[in-house]
């Protein structure tokens, strides 16, 4: 695996970690469909200059491509709905842990069932360490089942399952279009879908009355976390496979907790450090077999 590409992917995952507390800051400012629409529209517009600079084609080659981007837009819209609904009541650190530790497990499971791919013992061990690391960061021994269901974290659980399907969908498009082109259509479809639900909402234009904090959050969630972070992830899914790319999401929980401490003054405890170390070990174990193959081929 190219070192520069690896560092870029890690940076993208860190940007996702910071997106949790930043999104929490604006999660309750307006109804969720309105918030998601403006995020999607801003992201859609921010991708256009990249398409022109890189001279990437935007024309889809087949009906299958149209179908894939439509499904991708629907899935990503659902993910963002669950994302902000969970953040309205739940904690950003807990949400980052729940989503990002369960997502690779769900993705590997789906790949195993649908694509009939084998999973090595090393990868299973990595998934185990990643899951345990997430539980340690969350300090699950202090949390009751009722708390997980009633605190908004149920939406975070739904996020993990929805994102796994999005990873597989983005992988399918890798041979026929650029990940950036895929992102362009996904955000476009998402904008249209959300507009149908919020165009007559009295809060639709209210966002223009908000100050610096709101628009900084939108800028970060749009340009940094989504345009940069998600596009890099989609690209990784096409190059490495969705199950390998999703394993890097184990980096997000620690960065989500640390950024929550910096931005929202959440207390960072020793379990966070231990769990983060286990998650990083998981990334190594899951990818070690893949990296060995690349060395032999090159």
TrEMBL record:
Entry protein name: DMT family transporter
Signal sequence region: none
Subcellular location: Cell membrane
Keyword match Ubl conjugation: no
A cellular component term, taken from the record's GO annotations: plasma membrane
InterPro entries, per database record: AA-Vitamin_Transporters (IPR050638), EamA_dom (IPR000620), EmrE-like (IPR037185)
TM annotation in the entry: 35-54, 66-87, 93-112, 124-141, 147-168, 180-200, 212-237, 244-264, 270-287
Membrane topology reported for the UniProt record: Multi-pass membrane protein
Residues annotated as domain EamA: 6-138, 151-287
Alphabetically ordered keywords of this record: Cell membrane, Membrane, Transmembrane, Transmembrane helix
Keyword Cell membrane: yes
Pfam families recorded: EamA
Lineage: Bacteria, Pseudomonadati, Spirochaetota, Spirochaetia, Leptospirales
Source organism of this protein record: Leptospira levettii
């Amino acid at each position: 695996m190219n070192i520069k590409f690896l560092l870029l992917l890690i940076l993208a995952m860190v940007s996702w970690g910071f997106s949790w507390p930043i999104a929490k800051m604006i999660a309750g400012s307006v109804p969720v469909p309105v918030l998601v629409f403006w995020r999607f529209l801003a992201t859609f517009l921010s991708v256009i200059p990249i398409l022109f600079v890189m001279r990437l084609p935007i024309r889809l080659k087949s009906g299958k491509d149209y179908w894939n981007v439509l499904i991708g837009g629907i899935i990503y819209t659902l993910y963002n709905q669950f994302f902000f609904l969970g953040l309205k009541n739940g904690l950003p650190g807990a949400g980052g842990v729940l989503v990002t530790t369960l997502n690779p497990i769900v993705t590997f499971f789906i790949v195993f069932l649908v694509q009939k791919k084998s999973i090595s013992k090393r990868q299973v061990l990595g998934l185990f360490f990643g899951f345990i690391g997430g539980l340690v960061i969350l300090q699950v021994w202090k949390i009751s089942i009722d708390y997980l269901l009633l605190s908004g974290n149920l939406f975070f659980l739904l996020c993990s399952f929805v994102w796994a399907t999005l990873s597989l969908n983005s992988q399918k498009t890798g041979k026929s279009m650029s990940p950036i082109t895929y992102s362009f259509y996904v955000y476009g479809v998402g904008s249209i879908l959300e507009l149908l639900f919020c165009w007559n909402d009295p809060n639709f234009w209210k966002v223009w009355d908000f100050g610096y904090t709101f628009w900084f959050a939108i800028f970060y969630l749009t340009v940094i976390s989504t345009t940069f972070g998600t596009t890099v992830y989609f690209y990784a899914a096409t190059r490495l496979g969705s199950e390998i790319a999703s394993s890097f999401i184990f980096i997000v929980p620690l960065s989500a907790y640390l950024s929550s401490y910096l931005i929202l003054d959440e207390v960072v405890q020793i379990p966070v450090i231990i769990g983060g170390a286990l998650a990083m070990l998981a990334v190594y174990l899951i990818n070690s077999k893949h990296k060995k193959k690349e060395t032999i081929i090159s």
